[in-house]
Amino acid sequence: MTPATQPQTRLAVLHGGELPPGSARLDDHPGLASVRYATADRLGEVLPGADALFVWDLFSEALEAAWPKADSLRWVHAATAGVDNLMFDGLVGSDVVVTNSRGVFDEPMAEYVLGLVIAFAKDLPATLGHQSRREWRHRETERVGGKHALVIGTGPIGRAIARRLRAVGMTVEGAGRTARPEDPDFGTVVEASQDTAAPGLAEALPRADYVVLAAPLTDATRDLADAAFLARMRPGARLINVGRGPLVDEDALVRALHAGSIAGAALDVARTEPLPADSPLWDAPGALVSPHMSGDVVGWLDELVDLFTDNLDRYLDGNPLRNVVDKSRGYVSGP
């Protein structure tokens, strides 16, 4: 990418009604000729002439509709780890560089997954239910150590999850694009595929007490956890999705939970967000639903802005950007 001429660089910021914290850092940045802010409905007004776009409206798909107005755009930075909302044909086929916010969410999401595993094993949802009804009901709970987890998605978030689970004595297996017998975080990685008849994944699913979805949403992973996938899980296993909602066939999941073919599911993401009030997932047996919050810890918004401003300085100085996305697959390349 050709270094930007600092005094002429114009930045557009797509936001959802609230500006990034510390936005004065952008307004007063000496390398920017202008900073223009817009919500999704006004994005087309600020894109003409803009060299860079900061997508602060985290899951917005507004750029696709406004794309014809992007006459000077050279770089798009997403304040998210997943970039599936940006992978439309116009952007993918262009020379525009896309970067994301990899690294901000890894450890918080790994802690969240560990918390969900412990909540399931120690039956904490039932304990809260009994408490709300003032019931003193003794039960036995499960061990966490010695259980087997299959983490689908071997990127930075999946690796952080694997390290956390191994630290409490669980055995962990990974599923990713490429199978490999030895991996420092997963031990063994099998090939993940939309076709659950793929030998590696088909054999790995029945081994797992916990199946964790931490993969990006791509054509290959959409509806990965379908009826056939769920049927291969063991009856006492739990599914945890902290990736993207469309990784899971929700109708098939509801049927599996009601049939008892799996023991539970924790969903931090949904196909439609917010999850509609009439969704059967809310009261499906063994379901834990949270509002897309697994990576959102105190200070996370500041971290996102810090990462962007570091990349902005790199862009203005003509240095390599962090977290460059391979647009052909929606994955991050490089360290």
Note the topology.
Elements: E1 10-14, H1 24-27, E2 34-38, H2 43-46, E3 52-55, H3 62-66, E4 75-78, H4 89-92, E5 97-99, H5 106-121, H6 124-132, E6 148-152, H7 156-167, E7 171-176, E8 180-183, E9 187-191, H8 199-204, E10 210-213, H9 227-232, E11 238-241, H10 250-259, E12 264-267, E13 287-289, H11 300-317, E14 325-326, E15 331-332
Parallel strand pairs: 1-2, 1-3, 3-4, 4-5, 6-7, 6-10, 7-9, 10-11, 11-12, 12-13
Antiparallel strand pairs: 8-9, 14-15
Helix pairs in contact: 5-7
3D structure, described in words:
This protein has 11 helices and 15 strands. With 335 residues, the chain is α/β, with parallel strands linked by helices. The protein has 2 domains: 133 residues, NAD(P)-binding Rossmann-like Domain (Rossmann fold, 3-Layer(aba) Sandwich); 184 residues, Rossmann fold, CATH 3.40.50.720. The protein has an 8-stranded mixed sheet with strand order 8-9-7-6-10-11-12-13.
Quick overview:
Belongs to the D-isomer specific 2-hydroxyacid dehydrogenase family. By secondary structure, the chain is an alpha/beta fold. The protein has eleven helices and 15 strands.
Keywords:
alpha/beta, 11 helices, Rossmann fold, 5-stranded parallel beta sheet, 15 strands, 335 residues
